[in-house]
Amino acid sequence: MQLGVIGCGYVGLVTAACLAEFGHTVTCVDKDLARVDALRAGQVPIYEPGLAELVVENAGAGRLRFTTRMEDAVAGSAAVFIAVGTPSRPEDGLADMSYVYSAAREIARALRSFTVVINKSTVPIGSGDEVEKIIREANPVADFAVASNPEFLREGNAIADFREPDRVIIGADDARARDVMADIYRPLGIDSSRLLFMGRRTAEITKYAANAFLVTKISFINEFADLCEKTGANVEDVARGIGLDSRIGPKFLNVGPGYGGSCFPKDTSALLRSAEAMGAPLSIVGASVDANEGRKLRMAQKIADAAGGSLQGRTVAVLGLAFKANTDDMRGAPSLAIVEALVRAGARVKAFDPAAMEQARPLLPQIEYCADAYGCAQGADILAIITEWPEFRALDLARLKGLMESPVIVDLRNLLNPDAVRRAGFAYSSIGRP
Fold it and tell me: Does the pLDDT value for residue 304 go beyond 90?
């Protein structure tokens, strides 16, 4: 099939590359000429394992093309995915839909035959209705249908998530659109129980509901970690004990400094504001969001407590800045609030991240950036692990101890073995473990 993807950002690029791998011919359009030129040259501006190879391979095979011309992506395509940003509006926390609606107007002008216009971006409830209205007003004679096909991609694991999805959700109220969407995803070979067709608004709510549930699960286990610390219990055993219950499941029960990223913060904000405006406030989701915001500051206090209560004049080595491992994404990263709190408390902060330092520099210009974990630890009074990069599990503890001014580790991801760290001569603090 011939398909178009609007937006060469994270979701758009992953979607385009994976659809091309299915065998479809995909044209990906973006207004950023520099980005398009880089992609044509095989340079992928996003850190995501396996994505660069996938882009280069499919571009070389002629199945994936990049352009700045909307007509090239729309005219002749059976379906066009809108995968542009929907950031939070600073004035009210609602999703900024200007990019989506602008794309819809441009698509309308380029439509030539029946085309399914698909909202791939995470959009508020009812956005599909508005996209349909915009296209109809801009091109009254266009033959099209609007569908919702929300993404469920985990950064750092997006390629596998697209290839082997738990489910594919398609919100479409038009029979022709459902047929086209079924053809697009037929190469996946998934059974009908995981290819879920539903109403468009239902699909939009389902995306928000999934993210809201995961947010609640993260905040839930983090609060129980605090209780475990007060009682001497072990939150990891608690997580295993409840996660083996098939009604609960083990995923998203890993404790840490709170969630971040490009999706959870903005999506929960938009959901809460929208639900309130519709007269159906979501108090459980709101409480989970509030708990997450407070958690970041508690993590900074935990580091201060490990220093004896004061960080004034102390050097803190921070390992990990990205909001999670295997990505360079700093959007909503817990490290931002934690590091800023450390600096306000009088600490000198040094930092190392395997992938995210270039993205972090303009956001945290007041700290020192180091070439590796050991350079970061040099002369530090405290070492704090904020992001769960696998390489931090294999730190040479003896070498660290020799480099640091005082041997204190605060492990906000529970990466290290407490007994091994203490045997190496460190004072050690982790999350929810005695």
Answer: yes
Please write the tens of the pLDDT for every residue from 265-274.
Answer: 999 999 999 9
Q: What is the pLDDT of residue 37?
A: 96
Token pair listed for 77:
């395509």
State the distance between the two ends of the chain, measured CA to CA, in whole angstroms: 57
Tell me which residue has tokens 């109809």.
136
pLDDT above 90 for 121: no
pLDDT of residue 340: 97
Which of the residues are catalytic?
263
Which among 180, 198, 216 is the end of a domain?
Answer: 198
Between CA 365 and CA 198 the distance in angstroms is 47
How high is the pLDDT of residue 381? Answer: 97
The three-state (H, E, C) secondary structure of 368-422, written as one string: EECCCHHHHHCCCCEEEECCCCHHHHHCCHHHHHHHCCCCEEEECCCCCCHHHHH
Calculated CA dihedral for residues 7, 8, 11, 17, nearest 10 degrees = 120
Q: Of the candidates 136, 169, 198, which is a domain's last residue?
A: 198
For the chain, the maximum distance between any two Cα atoms, rounded to a whole number of angstroms, is 75
C-alpha to C-alpha distance for 398 and 421, rounded to whole angstroms: 9
Between CA 9 and CA 208 the distance in angstroms is 20
Query: What is the domain-level CATH number for residue 175?
Result: 3.40.50.720
